[in-house]
Design a protein that fits this description.
CATH superfamily of the largest domain: Translation initiation factor 3 (IF-3), C-terminal domain
Number of domains: 2
Largest sheet: 4 strands, mixed
Amino acid sequence: MGVYPIQEAIKVASDIGLDLVEISPNAVPPVCKVVDYSKFKYEQKKKQKEIKAKAHKTVIKEIRFGPNTEEHDFNFKLKHAQNFLEEGAKVKAYVHFAGRSIVFKERGEILLLRFAQALENYGRVEQLPKLEGKRMSIFVAPKAKAK
């Protein structure tokens, strides 16, 4: 341990039969460690694999409505959305306007807002209804589980 000139640090490492590995190049002075390089690389790869395994993958489920969706169909799709949110998936609900039905934009918006309100206990709205081309969509994310 201590601050050494580069040549001296390399000599110390080679005397022991190990390698000089730069750990933090941005520090002043740069931080190096005397270790077996192949073992160091192996451990680094192992840590990356662990981090990747622990990472949570976000699943987005889509639910499609029409501007004239009836009550029964709405409730059926609402039940599916509740199940998706309980499983931890995000839900993207959208109203697809086909042909001249684009004139009923307000119906689609009301439908999506009603959908979001019905899912209030299961998730929170990430994005309010937004019209993109012939689709008006809304995103609902699951509520964080209390531990």
